[in-house]
Amino acid sequence: MSVPAAPRVAFFGSPAFALPVLEAIREHFEVVLVVAQPDKPVGRGLRLTPPPVAARAAELGLPLAQPKKLRGNAAFEAQLRESGADVAVTCAYGKILPASLLAVPRFGFLNTHTSLLPAYRGAAPIQWALIRGESVTGTTIMQTDVGMDTGPILLQEALPIAPEWTSLELADALGTQAARLIVEALSSLPDLTPTPQDEAAATHAPMLVKEDGFVRWQEDAQAVVNRYRGVAAWPQTTAFLNGARLKLGGLSVTEGRGQPGEVLRVAADGLTVACGQGAVRVETVQPEARRAQSAGVWAQAVGVAAGTRFDLWEPAPA
């Protein structure tokens, strides 16, 4: 099967993370269709709002589809076929692709995945790489199959994780990397050799839930900070004091010993709180329905002093 010099591309993506990939593709290739998730209610007014990829496609005047479902959707399959796409690219699209759809483009679907597959398959590879303390991650361009990130690897490149990065900074770096790699992959379709993934080495990165942001003071200080870095975009870091929820910001490892959750020091630069091993400094605190403020100012206002203990939270047994 001959590959066109400049393959026509259908792009499937939804959040802002996918925008650099879309922009890179359209700079080098013809984008014949953009597919995003349907508009959703957003904000207090629940205003129906398009996902960032759909909004950008509309700005650019690109053909846009937002199907509510893919499986059994003959009309959408026909739309994809009629677009003339030689290949489709997915980037954080957010829906499982049925086999019938995967067979429509001549060269199938390529997926940009933000991990070094087979590590961290699933919905939240950026977040879980940070939570689990990885120092290196990367981007994989894979041929999509019917499994969850199980298809053969076409291109892969590592990316060192800076120790101060949260999920926000890591997502930016991986988005830039993915944009460059997908252009390379689309430019080299005839020369790419699919490499099967090692199933025995597979790990998983499930979608985050709110409880993933709850501080586990019983863990060592680095693990507490790693979790803070991983959940920075959502659900953010939550602690409890006498049952009240508090969002914590600016966590870093520091020196100190005490009972897990015990406040060791209150100062202008923040709170020092003991963990299972070591301690962390907390720069900001945000009580519910209020703005974030200096942790030291908050502590003085509510009477938190050395010896105060945050509530301990543990996940329910699996």
From TrEMBL:
Matches recorded under CDD domains: FMT_core_Met-tRNA-FMT_N (cd08646), Met_tRNA_FMT_C (cd08704)
Species of the source: Deinococcus carri
Designated name of the protein: Methionyl-tRNA formyltransferase
The keyword Protein biosynthesis is annotated on this UniProt entry: yes
SUPFAM superfamilies linked: FMT C-terminal domain-like, Formyltransferase
Enzyme class: transferase
Keyword Iron listed: no
Function: Attaches a formyl group to the free amino group of methionyl-tRNA(fMet). The formyl group appears to play a dual role in the initiator identity of N-formylmethionyl-tRNA by promoting its recognition by IF2 and preventing the misappropriation of this tRNA by the elongation apparatus.
A UniProt-annotated Pfam family: Formyl_trans_C
Residues annotated as domain Formyl transferase C-terminal: 208-300
Sites where the protein binds (6S)-5,6,7,8-tetrahydrofolate: S115, L116, L117, P118
Family of the protein in this entry: Belongs to the Fmt family.
Taxonomic lineage of the native organism: Bacteria, Thermotogati, Deinococcota, Deinococci, Deinococcales
Reaction equations catalysed: L-methionyl-tRNA(fMet) + (6R)-10-formyltetrahydrofolate = N-formyl-L-methionyl-tRNA(fMet) + (6S)-5,6,7,8-tetrahydrofolate + H(+)
Keyword entries, A-Z: Protein biosynthesis, Transferase
Domain of life of the organism encoding this protein: Bacteria
InterPro entries: Fmt (IPR005794), Formyl_trans_C (IPR005793), Formyl_transf_N (IPR002376), Formyl_transf_N_sf (IPR036477), Formyl_transferase-like_C_sf (IPR011034), GART_AS (IPR001555), Met-tRNA-FMT_C (IPR044135), Met-tRNA-FMT_N (IPR041711)
NCBIfam families hit by this protein: fmt
